[in-house]
Structures are given as C-alpha cells and as structure tokens.
Amino acid sequence: MNETIEGILSHYSVRDFTDQALTENEIALLVKSAQAASTSSFVQAYSIIGVSDVKLRQELSTIAGNQEYVVKTGQFFVFVADLSRHHEIGKARGADTESLSTMERFLVATVDATLAAQNMAIAAESMGLGICYIGGIRNNLAKVSELLHIPDYATPLFGLTIGHPTTSSEPKPRLATELVYHENHYQPKDMEDFKNYDATIRDYYAARTSGKRIEGWTDQIERGLRHTTRQDIKDFLASKNLGKK
C-alpha cells in the first residue's frame, strides 16, 4: 500500500461542486497528466476539449439528461476519439487513409482517449479535486459534435467534470475480486456467486437513500437490460468515417 494506491482505492464520483473555476495551471497540469498515459503505437488518437463557456455547458447538460454538475463545476472536459489529425497527415503525405475507417482504428482511438481520461481523473483526485464521468453526452452525439465543431474522423466519447467538491463520500463497494479476476482461463459465474455482493449493494443503497432505493447489483443490471438506448450511434459513427469496416 502506498499513497497512490490509497488514492485510487478511495475514489468515488462527485456530483456536487462549488462554482470555483479551475486555474489555468490546474487545467494545464491535468491535461499533461492525461497526455502521459499509454497510447497504442504512439498514435495519440484523442483530443480533449475543455468547455468553460456556461451557455455551452448548459446545452451539453441538457443533452446529458440535465446533469447540473456539468454546468456548476471547475471545468468540464469532453474526450474525443480523434483520427482527424491522422487523416490530414495522410492527405498531406499522399498516403491511403482508408484504414482510418476500420473498427480497429476506432477501438484504438477509444482506448487511447479512455486511458488519458483515467490518468486525468487520478491526477485530479490527487490534487484534492472531485470527478465524475458523463456518458450522457452520447444521448445525442450529432448535436454534441455540432456544438463542439468536431470534424469527420473524430467523435466525442464521454465527458469528465472536475471541480472542488462541496461534500465528501465513501467509495461504492465493487464486485469481489474473485468475480473479476481470472487466473489463466475465464471462469464463468452463476447467480449464486453474486448473492453476497447483491446484499452488500442493497445495504449500500438503503443507507444512502434512507430506504428509498433497495436493490442489488443484479437487479440493477436486469433493469438496464430491459431498455435499449442510443441505437443511432452506429450510423452516426459511420457518418463520421469511423468504424465502418
């Protein structure tokens, strides 16, 4: 155990921030930390858009389901899977850019962006800041792309809101290690294996909501499976020349 691991294991999402903006130095340090993440074959296939304009944040918040902490926060970042730079380089050098439209290239860009974002999140928490990922921007990727002027061969993936928390909390219990970690071969699980974790999560939600929400993890997963969302994403990505092949 060390300070870094203690920080990682203490993570919890923050959804209530002061309106104190991050300083230029804080933002620069967070972006540098993101850029220090591993990147596949050094392609660095991502971009980060910092959204400080309140009106723009409000529009993004509406798309994301009216999440107030997109607006009232220190800074809102949008992580972009970005192959547009590679496309421009290919055109300038007379190289074939067809490979940029493959699913493999899109996955590389998605992984690159995600690794960068997690680096930023860990750096932010080490600075005493709070963070929350915002997947809700995928509710309307076309509108987000329009608002942020994102070119072809690039797409927004998720947001990351970072700021000064108004309250503190505790980490949400994760799955037991033996349900996640497999040695040498995948080891399938059945419903019986989740019983103890379901009980833990029921207790967690009951305590957090004063008994208004009582459900286990498998209940939550089942509820989510009953609704298919964001079915337009595949066609949108194709329209941006991403993941077509």
Walkthrough of the structure:
- The chain has 2 domains: 168 residues, NADH Oxidase (3-Layer(aba) Sandwich), CATH 3.40.109.10; 73 residues, no CATH class.
- The protein is globular and about 60 Å long.
- The model has no long low-confidence stretch (mean pLDDT 97).
- With 245 residues, the chain is of the alpha+beta class.
- The chain has 10 helices and 4 strands; from the N terminus they run ααβαβααβαβαααα.
- The chain has a 4-stranded antiparallel sheet with strand order 1-2-4-3, with helices on both faces.
- α2 crosses α5.
- Belongs to the flavin oxidoreductase frp family.
- It comes from Listeria cornellensis FSL F6-0969.
Keywords:
10 helices, alpha+beta, 2 domains, 4 strands, NADH Oxidase, 12% strand, four-stranded antiparallel beta sheet, globular, single chain, 245 residues
Proportion in helices: 40-55%
CATH class category label of the largest domain: Alpha Beta
Termini gap: 45 Å
Per CATH, the superfamily of the largest domain is NADH Oxidase
CATH architecture of the largest domain: 3-Layer(aba) Sandwich
Count of β-strands: 4
Mean pLDDT: 97
Tally of helical segments? 10
CATH topology-level name of the largest domain: NADH Oxidase
Q: Trace the largest sheet across and list its strands.
A: 1-2-4-3
Strand content: 5-15%
Unreliable parts = none
So what's the overall shape?
globular
Main sheet attributes: strand count, strand direction, barrel closure: 4 strands, antiparallel
**Number of self-contained structural domains:** 2
**Secondary structure category:** alpha+beta
Radius of gyration (CA) equals 20 Å
Organism: Listeria cornellensis FSL F6-0969
GO molecular function: oxidoreductase activity
Pfam families: Nitroreductase
Protein name: Putative Nitroflavin-reductase
